[in-house]
Amino acid sequence: MTIPSTVIVYHSGYGHTHRMAEAVAEGAGAKLLAIDAEGNLSDDGWAALDAADAIIFGSPTYMGGPSWQFKKFADASSKPWFSAKWQDKVFGGFTNSASLNGDKLNTLQYFVLLSGQHGGLWVSLGIKPSNVKESKRDDANRMGSYIAPMAQSDADAAPDEMSLGDLETARLYGARVMSVARQYKSTQGE
Asked: What is the pTM of this model?
């Protein structure tokens, strides 16, 4: 069986989302495609997305949703939408913000809807939350998300100060997306 091609397309404003993207990529064996500061992606990046079996979205949560750079990318994805280029691909996503809540759920829901508009199949997190008294900052899924990974990084913290639990959650999620993509691809006779 061939290994599914997975691409992570993301925007990172201060490096935290980039670090999270690296963790997801480690788990998924995925290629990273950074959306630049102007919200653009290269032609090669678009071609990689069209060819991928799985696409994982990533963006920080700013003001209750994805960054404007990610939204610009999402709007530009109407071109592959017109010809159903991403139909039946496996999708996932992740986000980070400075606050514990920070309205990260809205960003993840935005990703789910975007994948649905493209006719994609969304992969949930599949990790129970760490929500007992003994839970620590570096436990997996400490944010208690079910849709996809959420991370929290203090506004004055460098990317290398991120919670190891948040990064492990991202890595495990990448592995789950790869596993689901592999299972799905095997049912397609490829």
From this structure: 0.95
